[in-house]
Amino acid sequence: MILFLDAMGQHETAGRCIEWFLSRQDDRGYINSYGDYESETGPVLWCAAEHYRISRDEAWLRKNLPALTKSARFLLSQRNAAKAKSGGLVAGKCSDPKDDTCAFFLNAGIYLGIAGLAEALQEVDPALAAELAADARGYRDDIRKGLEQSAMESPLVPLLDGSWTPALGPWPGTNGNVAYHADGGEWFSHGTIFGRLDSGAMALFLTDALPVEDTLMELVLKSHQHPHFRENAGLSQPYYFRHDIAHLRRGETKLFLKCFYNQFVSLQDRQSYTFWEHYFHVTSHKTHEEGWFLMQCRWMLALEERGGLTLLKGVPRRWLAEGKEIEIHGLATRFGKTELTLKCRNGCVAGAASVERPGCFLRIRLPHPQGARVPAEVQGGSYDPSAETLTLTQRDFSVRW
Q1: Deepest of 286, 303, 309, 391, by most Cβ within 10 A of its Cβ?
Q2: Which residues of 259-288 are buried (b: 16+ CB within 10 A; e: fewer)?
Q3: Dihedral, 56, 58, 64, 70 alpha carbons, nearest 10
Q4: What kind and span of H or E run contains 227?
C-alpha cells in the first residue's frame, strides 16, 4: 500500500505511514505491529528505501536516519547470528502458522531492507551504506546456497510440458514441499495443504538476490506455478505469490495477464469492489490484496528495470487497437515523474513520453493488436520485434504498421 501511495505521488502520506512503523521499534530496532510476526522489520526498511528512491526527499531520510539505523543494526545482528548456525539465513515466524523456520519469504524481506538501505544511504551515511552493501553481497551468496540445498533435498516431479523440477520446500532442511508430508507434520491451513508455499522463494522475485533468468529462479517458478496453481493463480491467498513480477521481468506478458485477471475476478467482491482474502469469502475488504492488485496495475504501466524504465510492459495488446488511447500523467517512479500520451490511428501508434530525471533508458512496449512483429516505419527510437518494444531516442515517437 505504501509503495502504491508513493507511485501516485502521495509522498507525504507514504512517509507518515513508514514513520508509524518506525515508531513501534523496540530498543533493539525490531519492528512488530501484527500478532507475533517477525517479518516486518526488513520490508519496512525496504519501503523506506523505495520512498527515498522515488521521492528523493533527503530531509525525510535524514530526519528518520536514527530509527532506520537502529533497525538496520538489528537486521545485521540477526544476520550475524544466522551465519553461525543456519548458513546465514535468518529464522523466525513470518505468517499465521507457528513456524520458526528460515523461510525464503522471511529472508527475502530482510534482504530487501538491507540492500535497499545500502543504496538509499550512500550520500547520507556512506559508512553504514558500505557496511550494508557488503552484507547484502554475502546475503546473496547465502540465499543461493539455501536454494541449492532445498533443490538437492527435494524429490523430482514431472510437469505437463515434459520437464522435471525439484518440488522445492519453503525453507531449507525439508524433503521438498512440506505439503507432500515426506517429513510428516500438519500443514493444512487457510483452506489448503499448500499454504506454506506463500513462505517460499517466490518473494525473491522482488529482489536482486538472484537474477530472474537464473536457473534456480526458473526452478522456483516451475516448482510453484505448474503443480500448485490453477489458471496461474494460487490455490489460496494468491496475492502472496510474486510470479506476477517474475513474468513481467521475463517478458512473459500473457502469463502475467493470466495471473492478473484470474486473481482479481476470483477475489474482488461484486458489490463493493474491495477484495476478499480467500476464495471462500473469509476476511472482507482486505487491503493487502487490494494493495498488490494496484501494484500489479502500476507494474503493468511502468516497470523499473536495470538502468531504466519500461512503459506498458504488461498491457494487453488489444489496448493498442485502432482508436485506443493511453495516457499516464505524473506517475512517480525511481526516475522521477513519468508522462505518456499515445493514440492509435490508421495503423499507426504515435505519441510522446518522458521521465523527469535524465540518464536512463526509456522504453515503451508497443505490441501490434493482431500480433504482427515488424513495423513498416519507426520514428523516435529503435524497435525490437522480439520484445515488441521501442527504445526512445527522443520524446516524440511513432510506429506505423
Answers
A1: 309
A2: bbebbbeebbeeeeeebbbbbeeeeeebee
A3: 90
A4: helix 215-228
Do 365 and 310 contact (CB within 8 A), yes or no? yes
State the pLDDT at residue 48: 98
- The pair phi, psi for residue 89, each rounded to 5°, is -90, 130
Please give the sequence-ordered ranges of beta strands (E in DSSP) within 8-47, or none if there are none: none
Spatial neighbors of 281 by CB under 8 A, at least 6 apart, are: none
pLDDT, tens digit (0-9, with 9 covering 90-100), for 242-262: 999 999 999 999 999 999 999
Interacting residues of 366 by C-beta distance below 8 A, sequence separation 6+: 312, 320, 349, 383, 388, 389, 390, 399
pLDDT tens figures, 132-141 = 999 999 999 9
Grid cell, residue 274, equals 474491495
175, 203, 229: which is closest to 103 by C-alpha?
A: 203
DSSP string, 126-175: HHHHHHHHHHHHHHHHHHHHHHHHHHHHSPEEE-TTS-EEE---SSSSSS
| 275 and 266 Cβ atoms separated by less than 8 Å | no
